[in-house]
Specification:
Helix content is 49%, strand content 11%. By secondary structure, it is of the alpha+beta class. Strands 1, 2, 3, 4, 5, 6 and 7 form a seven-stranded mixed beta sheet that branches. It has a two-stranded antiparallel ribbon with strand order 8-9. A hairpin with a 7-residue loop joins β3 and β4 (44-51). It comes from Flavobacterium luminosum.
Length: 422
């Protein structure tokens, strides 16, 4: 038995509630269940009930056992002084407020059907990939669609919190914050954390000053990534080494000796050298990049902003000092799509939320124009009959799997609740 099941029972009144009695054998009538807060303090706020002939308005607290009241030290907390009903599965002790007045108790185990309890246990104890994978296709599409929108914004809000931390470390400089986060995404999964540390190691004021020459940015990026050789043989690489030493001294930049990037199992176009060269060209070509991102709303506008390639040296190289066949290496549209999904939309959401502006519909419209992401979670949902049609839906499914299915939070999920209702 978990407490969220009791929350579900109370919220949806899924118990025989016509002849309710408190443990003190007084009649109980529920007029209004209260507002489900899901935060610190009592579980349901401002409920209305009738006990005996007396009407009460106040809060409802829910526990597995009555004694959990004392286990959680509610008897010392003034936030619980206005609790008018203690809803429990098992009543094992009397409960009192701080003023020593006794709190009425409803013991739910006497009013819940065995069938519902059996359904709940089967759902939670499932050994499947997700608990409801056999039932999810039977849930009305309207329920799933509405829940996906909520999941999508839950995901944005979670990402927004981490963005606020980066913003704080950047002294509320949004351009610097955008550079830090987009650098991380240029590294993809294999080098994302390394690129993040690299970006954090270079003050953005230096990027602003040196962006007039792409070679200066390359020197900074490759130097901080520990990619420059100690004894360069290539003329261009010698210039990068000399520039890096000059910039490092000029701006007192601390070397990141422990930072390392990986090439293993990466396609050449995803080599960290190429991604860093593209990032350098992006900041060389596009000044005030974050401001441009704020003004853009359509997919083609973003493709235009990120229509950059690499410097001449990297047209015929994938690695330093190792020539390769000449090839153009622009940022692909699929790569820009990933930047939009993982960096641009979350950052714009965080920015406009901080200003108190509502722009949510524009993010849905934008991601609905981007094809669905390819990953194991999206593929598995497809296998059980839930097919993401675009990036908006694939982001929602990732949130569903990570924050609900994997956590067994079925009764906080609209789909899980619908399964039990069926």
């Amino acid at each position: 038995m978990k407490e969220d099941f009791l929350h579900y029972l109370w919220q949806y009144q899924k118990f025989a509630n016509t002849n309710l009695r408190t443990t003190q054998v007084e009649s109980l009538q529920v007029l209004y269940i209260g507002q489900y807060l899901q935060q610190a303090g009592p579980d349901f706020f401002n409920a209305q009930i009738v006990i005996g002939n007396q009407k009460w308005a106040g809060n409802v607290e829910i526990h597995i056992n009555s004694s959990d009241w004392y286990l959680h030290h509610h008897e010392r907390d003034e936030n619980y002084d206005n609790v008018i009903l203690h809803v429990v599965w098992q009543h094992d002790t009397e409960v009192f407020r701080r003023d020593n007045t006794e709190i009425p108790v409803l013991e739910l185990q006497h009013y819940v059907s065995h069938e519902l309890l059996h359904q709940y246990k089967n759902l939670i104890r499932s050994k499947k990939w997700i608990n409801c994978e056999n039932e999810i296709q039977s849930i009305p599409q309207l329920v799933v669609k509405n829940w996906m929108e909520r999941l999508f914004f839950d995901r944005l809000e979670r990402k927004s919190k981490s963005i606020q931390e980066v913003l704080k470390n950047n002294q509320n400089d949004w351009e610097a914050t955008f550079f830090t986060l987009i650098a991380k995404n240029f590294g993809l999964n294999s080098n994302g954390e390394a690129f993040l540390e690299l970006a954090k190691s270079i003050p953005f004021s230096v990027i602003r000053k040196e962006a007039f020459d792409v070679q200066y940015l390359e020197a900074l990026f490759f130097g901080q990534a520990n990619l420059l050789p100690k004894e360069p043989q290539d003329h261009y690489v010698k210039e990068l080494v000399d520039l890096y030493q000059y910039l490092k001294i000029k701006y007192q930049i601390e070397e990141q000796s422990s930072l390392s990037v990986h090439f293993f199992r990466l396609r050449p176009d995803n080599f960290p050298t190429i991604r860093l060269a593209q990032l350098a060209m992006l900041y060389h070509k596009q000044r005030n990049l974050f401001s441009q991102i704020l003004q853009a709303n359509e997919l083609e506008e973003f493709y235009k902003i990120f229509n950059v390639s690499v410097s001449e040296y990297w047209l015929s190289h994938y690695n330093l000092e190792k020539p390769s066949r000449y090839k153009e290496k622009p940022l692909s549209k699929s790569f820009v799509d990933l930047l939009i999904i993982n960096t641009i939309v979350p950052l714009k959401f965080a920015y406009y939320t901080s200003l108190g502006e509502e722009t949510t519909e524009s993010y849905i419209r934008l991601l609905e124009k981007i094809i669905t992401e390819k990953n194991a979670v999206v593929e598995k949902f497809k296998h059980i009959g839930i097919v993401a049609q675009n990036a908006f839906e694939s982001q929602a499914l990732l949130q569903l799997k990570n924050d609900y299915c994997d956590q067994n939070k079925c009764l906080q999920c609209a789909i899980g609740v619908a399964v039990l209702k069926n």
